Amino acid sequence: MMNTVKAMKNAAVCLVLLPRFLLAAVLFWLLDFLCIRKRFFLRMKEQGGDATDPPLCISDSNRLFSLESLKAVWHGQKLDFLKAAHLGGRAPNTEVVWLEDQRRTRILDCAQGDRALILNFGSCT
Q: Name one GO biological process term (predicted).
């Protein structure tokens, strides 16, 4: 039962993310196409033609429309969609542990009235 619920949730996320992912894939393909087009016109110009093309290519050596880049885009969009905190939304109320006595509490339980709750994250290495 739990695996079915998880599979349904993953399928729903995929359906929501698919249009955004396909748009990114088309844009990557177009950018690669423009790079190829620029190279083609530069070769024509070197051979004596007068063809010009705007400098739209970011890199001629690396392809944007590759399996690796599409995997990275899919993973990034999935992480962005599933994150707990969203701009303009409520802050996530995650569990925290007090260092003094190892007591567990929720982070928003530390807020007092209308005072702002300031979190200071740091590390010692």
A: thyroid hormone metabolic process
Amino acid found at 12: A
* Per-residue confidence (pLDDT) for residue 61, from 0 to 100: 54
Dihedral angle of Cα 74, 80, 82, 84, to the nearest 10 degrees: 170
Residue 11 forms part of a structural domain: yes
Query: 117 is written with which tokens?
Result: 């709750």
Q: Is the pLDDT of residue 56 over 50?
A: no
Q: 95: which 2 tokens?
A: 């569990």
Do 97 and 103 contact (CB within 8 A), yes or no? yes
Residue 83 lies in a domain: no
Angle 2-46/67-82 helices, nearest 10 degrees?
A: 140
Read off the pTM: 0.49
